[in-house]
Amino acid sequence: MSDFNKNDWCWQLPDGRVWGTKAAAFVDEAGAAAWLAASGLAAIPPSPADEAGEWTETGLRMALAFYGLPLGELMSLAEAKAAKLAEVIAACDAALEPLASSYSAMERSTWDQQVSEAGAYLSDAGASAPLLRAIAEARGIEVADLAKRVMGNKSALELISGAVLGQKQGYEDVLAAITDETPDAVSRVSEIAVSYRLPGLA
Fold first, then answer.
1. Which structural domain, as residue segments, surrounds residue 39?
2. CA-to-CA separations, 110 to 95, 116, 118, 149, 150, in angstroms, rounded
3. Same domain, yes or no, for 151 and 182?
């Protein structure tokens, strides 16, 4: 008898449908037969029971959640959209993270002040700008040069961040537009390929 392998297991519902955890979907007759032959079992195990002790789709969903397995075709539209939104957000964070990864947390905490002082200095060279002046002195460069670099970095960051955030919101718009509660809608959500493009890159 085959040992239970949650990542490659089959359960059969009373209506005859067979769920394959490897595919995260209902498998066809040939797929079910192939799994059964490889398992060494006499029959495909019945679907896990629900809270009422019935072998139902609800019980199957409960078992998948218990084992941390994907719901696949059993996912509701709301669940599919929530999962895809989490993917969109994570990919957005991953796309933007390199912009700050080469800076310390302390340095990042001064960015707003640096921008404020740089703007003030470029408008009036007599402006106080204590942080900018201290940085420039330590680096051995002119305050004016540093101020221009700070403002240039600000513009570049805004360009990249704006492009990425615009794409993120575009994905959110696509998700919001899918409202029909059908298996096809769930499939359309699941098939959305999330990929962020940075300005200047193909």
1. 10-74
2. 22, 10, 12, 15, 11
3. yes
